[in-house]
Each structure stands twice: as structure tokens, then as C-alpha cells.
Amino acid sequence: MTFHHKLPVFLTLASAVRSILANPTNLKPISTPDDEDDTPLPVVIWHGLGDTFSADGLQSVGALVEKVNPGTLVYYVRLDESPSNDRTATFYGNVTEQIAKVCDDLAAHPILSTAPAIDAVGFSQGGQFLRGYIERCNFPPVRSLVTFGSQHNGIVDYKACSAADWLCKGAMALLHGNTWSSWVQSRLVPAQYFRDPKDLESYLEYSNFLADINNERETKNETYAKNIAKLENFIMYIFENDTTVIPKETGWFEEVNGTEITPLRARKLYSEDWIGLRALDRKGGLHFKTTPGEHMQISDEILEDTFSEFFGPLKKAAAKDDERSEEL
Prior knowledge:
Blueprint: H1 2-22, E1 43-46, H2 56-68, E2 74-76, H3 83-88, H4 95-108, E3 118-123, H5 125-136, E4 142-148, H6 166-175, H7 182-187, H8 200-206, H9 210-213, H10 222-229, E5 233-239, E6 255-257, E7 260-262, H11 268-271, H12 277-282, E8 286-291, H13 300-310, H14 314-327
Parallel strand pairs: 1-2, 1-3, 3-4, 4-5, 5-8
Antiparallel strand pairs: 6-7
Helix pairs in contact: 2-13, 4-5, 5-10
């Protein structure tokens, strides 16, 4: 009698096991206290050329982050505690060493280093530098990366300086005609993401930074691709009327050679997945966006919408993953 009494229970359990094995998507991780935490992930912001971590404009961006997701810790990347020296470092310095410093700073930060992940915003050159951070160290790991007007595929010309900006003028004077010298490649920041499709041989041989993080040389760094593919989202904005970044399409990894434009998805960088963009794209995490205006003319509305959609608590990403699974 006892055996027959337990038989239906056994059969029910067996049926449940068969159902789970047949439909592994039914398996969901057990919730942990961290999963239920509604504290927004910290946000790291890296500014662009000629700017500084303490600039009013950058601070206002941080204020918008906190407005959209109250309680967010905002960290502004700085290469020196002096705003003046930090601005100088946007023109002069070894980008490889600068990224290594940021890796060390974030890993040593008492709050960032203990967070399950962080979100990141990069303005202009700060965008590709944050991507370099993700590829090379990524601790704490980045969940979503947003870049505005960045030079992911390099530049073919240098920016014009304002009449009174002697720091900029000095850097640009050294750059023109000396881009591939070892001195320039190790000391002048914009030269380290210069890339002329008509002279890829020099670029691949001498580039101190961009050729490496784009994995364009024959020997590939597999870690770079793995780290980018781990992102939840990579959101790339370009400015419709950008005349500062040449070409503006570099913000989408497009190859511009004269009048010929090759989209990212038609390039070997993507098809052979040198840096993980194809893998990220296949899971719906690669986003191409435009915004009106010139370089760095960003409306509060664009910023707030972006922060609302992609930033916030960690569990927000888990909810989106569940939605994607249901759609599939």
C-alpha cells in the first residue's frame, strides 16, 4: 500500500524532470539578495580631448545620471587630481599607460571594486579609452558602455584648435608630419588613434594604441573579444553634423576611404569577430544611434533617455534578458 501510495508522486517527479531536460530554458537561477537589490550600478564617465573631470558640463551629466536613477554613484575618470594637469593629459601622454592607471584606480576604489558591475559613458576620445579599459582589464566589469562621438575606427585628420588654445596648438603642430615617429606615438594622445586607410602599413607597424585594441594586427588578443562580448549593451552615438571628428562614421566603426564607406557589418573586424562585436550584436547588445548637432552637442533628453534605458539596478538587465528569452 505504501508503495502504491507513493507511485503517483514518483511519476509526477519523473515527468517534471523530463520536462526540464526537454526545456532547459525553464531552469532559472535562484534569486540571491544581490539580485533583489534595487541600488543603481555605479557609473564611470571619461571625458574627451581638452576637457577635465571637474568641468561644469561633465558634472551636469553626472547630475542627470543621478536624477534618472537616484542613488547612483558617479565616478569621473581623472589622470591627475589637478584639473589643469588632467586637461593636459588629454593631449600629452601614453594612452596605454593612462588606461593602465585607470584600471588600477577603479580596481582600488572601495566602492567600485566591490560593485557587481558598473556602467560607463565615454565622450569623444574617452569612449575608445573606456573600450580599451574593458578589453584590457575590465575590473570592475562594465555592464553597458555608451559612447558619444568617439573615434573607434580612428581619425584621418586632427581637430582645429581655437585661437587662444595654445596647449592644443602645440600638440597639433607636433602631430602634423610626425604622426608615426616613436616619440609622437608614445607622447601625443590624438596620434595614438590616428588611422589612415590609405596607409594601413604604417598604422599597423607604429600605432601605439588603436591598432592594438581593434585587434587589427596578425596576432589577435582573444581576451579583447571575450570582454567586449560580455557587455550587456554597447551604445554608439554619432553626431549628424559632426565636423570635429573626421570622419564622423568612425563612431560606428565604419571604414571611410575617400567617398567609399564600408559599414561595420561588412568589415573583417566584424565578420571574423576580432573584438567581440559580432557576438555582442547577435545577442542584441550592439546599438547604432545618431543625435542632431555638432560634436558634443547633446540634449538633456537624449542623455536622460539613454540613462533610463540602459543604466540603473543590476536586476534591470536580468529583466530584459527574460523579455528577450520570451521573445525568442
